[in-house]
Amino acid sequence: MDVFKMFKSKRKVLQHTKTPFEIFRETTARFIILTIGAFIVAFALECFMLPNKIIDGGIIGVSMMFNFITNINLGVLIFCLNIPFIFLALTTLGKMFVIQTFYSVTMLSIATNLFIGHHVTHDSFLAAIFGGIILGVGVGLILRNSASLDGTEILSIRLSKKFSFMSIGEYLMGFNLLIYSASGFMFGWDKAMYAIITYYVASKMIDVVIDGFNSSKSVRIVSDFYKEIGKSIMKELDVSVTYMKSRGGYSGEEKILTYCVVSRLEMAKVKEIVRSIDKRAFLVVEDVHEVEGVRVRK
Predict the structure, then answer these.
(1) I want to staple 259 with a disulfide (CB 3.0 to 4.6 A). Which of 157, 166, 168, 242 is the partner?
(2) pTM
């Protein structure tokens, strides 16, 4: 088929070697963002959550409870309790991840001391909602730049590799369930429920920060009129399409699958194009969390 002639031609792979200046610039920008993320998290903890006895999950949550019990500085507790887990990540997640995580935890420990005594609200519901939003933004910035603030995530990765009957998410859920249960006994079950609200809001904000607001859609189209559909999509939406060889399960006939990635706003136009050319076309749409490449995102 003429569609597959493109696969016969060999192309040279162009590799761009980063200059020392580019590496320095990217590294500097990453550590600046990690610093901003750590300060945002500290602001959420000290100004919203801690005054209202709303506990975060993971090591930070454990540190907050120890802070109430012992009155030891929260920043010191976060730093000391995270250190063993950071070294645990050396063999699993690499040296650069450990360096960036150590830096982020250190910045968070310092930043918490700058916001001590600066309380924004004493309304537990407002603290849970807005504290979760701010916390999620800060944690999202840190996760997006290949670092972490929570040793339980590292521990969950190690445990899931050693004991594969549970996933990383299930181990994390188990740890947080214990932490929120302990906070319920310490501060009352209403505070534990507020903490769960904060966790939920923060997790949604983390997704927004990591994936972005402009979610994309991947589209797979099976039609006998693949050429017409592909040309119309490229012409009207100015996005590239890919043709892939496939075979029908029932008919056994060879088909051409047309694949493209479009924005959420362009999805309605794609459906309109496909239906106007072939009403019997088989169309599958999936969410895409991250897209990079030429002629994909304008």
Answers:
(1) 242
(2) 0.73
Task: Please state, in angstroms and as integers, the Cα–Cα distance from residue 138 to each residue in 5, 80, 168, 220, 235, following that order.
Answer: 48, 21, 22, 36, 41
Three-state SS at 218: strand
Whether 37 and 138 have beta carbons less than 8 Å apart is answered as yes
98 φ/ψ sector (left φ>0, alpha ψ -120 to 50, else beta): alpha
R_g of the chain, CA atoms, integer Å = 25
**How sure is the predictor about 249, in pLDDT bands with cuts at 50, 70 and 90?**
confident
Q: Is the dihedral of CA 208, 210, 215, 220 positive or negative?
A: negative
Q: Which two tokens stand for residue 81?
A: 């309790």
Between CA 65 and CA 179 the distance in angstroms is 9
- Cβ neighbours of residue 196 closer than 8 Å, sequence gap 6 or more: 180
Nearest to 190 by CA among 179, 199, 180: 180
Apex 247 CA angle, 243 and 250, nearest 5: 145
> Do the beta carbons of residue 39 and residue 58 sit within 8 Å?
no
Please, are residues 110 and 75 in contact by the beta-carbon 8 Å criterion? yes
Burial class (CB in 10 A: 0-12, 13-18, 19+), 206: buried
Kindly tell me if the per-residue pLDDT of 256 is higher than 80.
Answer: yes
**How far is 257 from 219, CA to CA, in rounded Å?**
10
CA dihedral angle for residue 287, residue 293, residue 294, residue 298, rounded to 10 degrees: 50
